[in-house]
Amino acid sequence: MDVTAKLLRLYQVEKQLRGLQARLQAAEKFLAEQDKDLGSLSSKRAELEQQIKLLRAQAGDREGEVKRLDERMATIRKQMENAQTNKEYQAFLTELNNYKVDRDRLETAALEFMQKVEDLTKTVEAIEGQRNERDKVRGVAQTDREARFKEIETRLVELKAQREQAAADVPGDVLQMLTRLLNQRGEEAMASVQVEDRKRHEYTCGACQMSIPVDAVSALLSKGKLTLCSSCQCILYLDEDAMKALNPPKAGPKSGAKK
Ligand SMILES: [Zn+2]
Questions:
Q1: Looking at residue 170, what DSSP letter applies?
Q2: Nearest by Cα to 201 from 245, 142, 161, 164
Q3: CA of 226 to the centre of ligand 1 (A)
Q4: Cβ(52)–Cβ(124) under 8 Å?
Q5: Is 13 exposed, middle or buried (0-12, 13-18, 19+ CB in 10 A)?
Q6: Ligand 1 center to residue 237 CA distance, Å?
Q7: 98 CA to middle of ligand 1, Å?
Q8: Quick one: which of 239, 189, 233, 193 has its CA closest to 213?
Q9: Which residues pair with 193 in a beta bridge?
Q10: Distance 209 CA to ligand 1 centre (A)
Q11: What is the pLDDT along the chain (259 residues), one digit of tens a residue?
Q12: How far apart are the CA of 158 and the centre of ligand 1, in A?
């Protein structure tokens, strides 16, 4: 087996591995998105609950003050009943009215705080609903991820063993080159030569479509020499179609090529 054939074998295993892993990665990405959304819904809920706690405390303070004023006003009313003079009575009345104004203001404030608490509680409930929905989606995503992993687990182990075997046959520096190309270009690390016109020696790179000199194609065909596309630097090989086009059947009605 020549070096290009060895590389091609490794590349084909690698392509299958990447295809399998891509499906798993898509499932994992979807699952991670659900976790992220759940996390942000949870922190939003926690933030709102903190606000609610604060608003309740503020409402509680106002209500406490209202109660204190009510007690104070009850005392004043008693003092009014026992007032000795009209002047004294009027003074208590003024004080009482001042307290009433304060009391109303505090009561309104307490109600406003409680209204906000009610509004925010509704928002929290809505978020909780969203969280439950998202949690269901997450459950499905998790199951899907597990199923996909189980589906490919055996095949993944097989392919990894095949990759190891195929890689062991490839010289170290060439292997490094393929690995680098795979990381940079993915499936376009290798490409087949396209035979555009055999008689006119027109060949192109299957990845970048730029032309390839006839010498390079001959070296590939005869010795499987390691050949890079001079334009895109991918490793070239000859696939079945290219082989057929380069080695047309000897006998046949249409094989009367001119010399
Ligand atoms: Zn190319």
A1: S
A2: 245
A3: 14
A4: yes
A5: buried
A6: 11
A7: 90
A8: 193
A9: 205
A10: 6
A11: 899 999 999 999 999 999 999 889 999 999 999 999 999 999 999 999 999 999 999 999 999 999 999 999 999 999 999 999 999 999 999 999 999 999 999 999 999 999 999 999 999 999 999 999 999 999 999 999 999 999 899 999 999 999 999 999 999 999 999 999 999 999 999 999 999 999 999 999 999 999 999 999 999 999 999 999 999 999 999 999 999 999 877 655 554 444 4
A12: 31
Ligand 1 centroid to Cα of residue 176, in Å, is 19
186 Cα to the center of ligand 1, angstroms: 14
CA of 162 to the centre of ligand 1 (A): 27
Other residues' Cβ atoms within 10 Å of the Cβ of residue 109: 17
> What residue ranges define each of the domains in the chain, with the CATH number in brackets?
3-168 (1.10.287.1490), 175-246 (no CATH)
How far apart (Å, rounded) are the C-alpha atoms in residues 108 and 96? Answer: 18
CA–centroid distance, 230 to ligand 1, in Å, is 7
- 257 closest CA partner among 196, 198, 193, 195: 198
How many angstroms separate the alpha carbon of residue 217 from the centre of ligand 1?
13
Centre of ligand 1 to C-alpha 236, Å, is 8
This prediction has a pTM of: 0.64
- One-letter identity of residue 71: E
- In degrees and rounded to multiples of 5, residue 140 shows phi and psi of -65, -45
